[in-house]
Automatic annotation (TrEMBL):
It comes from the Bacteria. This is Heparinase. PANTHER family: CHROMOSOME 1, WHOLE GENOME SHOTGUN SEQUENCE (PTHR38045), HEPARINASE II_III-LIKE PROTEIN (PTHR38045:SF1). InterPro entries: Chondroitin_lyas.
Amino acid sequence: MSRDGGRDLLVRQAREEAARARTEPLPALTFALWRRYADTGDRQAYEGVYFERRRRLAALMLAAHLDDRPDPALDDLLWSVCDEYTWVLPAHEPRDRPVNAFVDLFAAETGHALAEAAGLLGEHLDPRVLARVREEVERRVLRPLQEGAPALWWESAGHNWAAVCAGAAGMAALALDSERLPALLPRLERALESFLAGVGPDGACLEGPDYWSYGFGYFVYFAEALRERTGKDLLDDPHVREMAAYPARVDLGGGARPAFADSSGMGAYPAGLLDRLAERLGVPVPQGREPSFHDDHCYRWAHLSRTLWWTARTPRTPPAPHDRLPDAAIVVARANGTAFAAKGGHNDEPHNHLDLGHFILHAHGRTVLDDLGAPEYTRDYFGAGRYAVPQASAEWHSIPLIDGAAQRPGRDRRAETVRYAAGHDTVEWTLDLTAAYDAPRLTRFTRAFAWRPARLELTDTFAFAGGDCPVAELFVSRLRPELGRDSVGWGPVVLEIPSPWRARAEELEVRGHDGVPETVHRVRLTAAVPSGPHTFVFTVR
């Protein structure tokens, strides 16, 4: 593989990290850290050390690859990774088999990194390290997937697990030229077919943009490795082309995107992945920025190496004025540095939040009306306590509480499109959200968005059984609102408060996906309102 097309920042940072890895003591993955998840539900303690070790591994591998020479520190670290009790995270420990008979996301990623260390750098590694690397990858990743081994649950999943685990394991087998490869490939390709089948015809990633990079990224990395070896081209597929176009369709400009589901509103897609998709499939991709070694907090070798090898500064096509992803029920519109996005769907999506009818508003380089995205991952978040976490709850999305009721989870809690129309720079979209609520007196609720450049009209129309009904309209932001007598301002965005609504500002400290606390804000408009339409106008100054 060529090393051409590398980015200066990425290379410089990798060398800096490699120098640090050679001089600082390696943190240990102790039993005390391992048991923390089972005892308290805390994932960060173990994972922080785990990913620090992967950070050093990626840096030393990149530096050895760039310099084309041995590095004793890399030998030591590879040996230490082979010493780890398991490559599986505590949060993914299986209940139906021994932990090292299971392949999770991170075991597969680690196996891929070590296999490519052997394949790319084998001549520079001590032969004893090389032999042990090959043995451990075979034992921990390839043997549990060999023909006749019991199926793993993710092999039939329609989301990122199938793509990452199968793609990383497949790349590991290819890099090692494993004797298991002929029997392994059909099994892995069936898992990848499950991944593709879990994505609608519009190509949208319901798990959010970060999971597009993750799941679809590993699918593409494996597909290109397979094409290089066999000539078979998994990317030559209209459905795959639609999936490749997803980031451009939800792009808000300037690196911003909707943080629907468990994602982030700002972030870097792997630059090499975008360039390869633009080159191979001719799809539009978002404008990128200089890739950094630190773009991925898990320091996955697949992302970093392909960004080094594939980044080619491919010209980017400006996004269309508006996009609609009908299967995911997502609408995005852009004009003159402002953008709007909203979603329908149902309340049992992968990495689901209670957010039907939720919207965001982006203005002058900032996402003003916002989505809080992914919280810190804990055991409770993936259990019964999920919707008590603010980021996933209905109460911290820009949707109403009706007659005291919030949206409920479930696949039958659906949004139905009533009308969609779009002009050159206008979008109108109406959703029926009645099924999302168990409100005592509600008989019908529709939400209509009317977008014009620098102006969004939001019209909520309620039908109640008998008399006025209490409603609370919620609007969520990371900006502190300024409340006036008849308006609310969030920096460049102003909402005129219609009668009889009254506004109150609220704030809450939450923990982001990285575990860092942040303060978020909510404006609550309350009124007892009659059946009929109620319109709220947001203007960008």
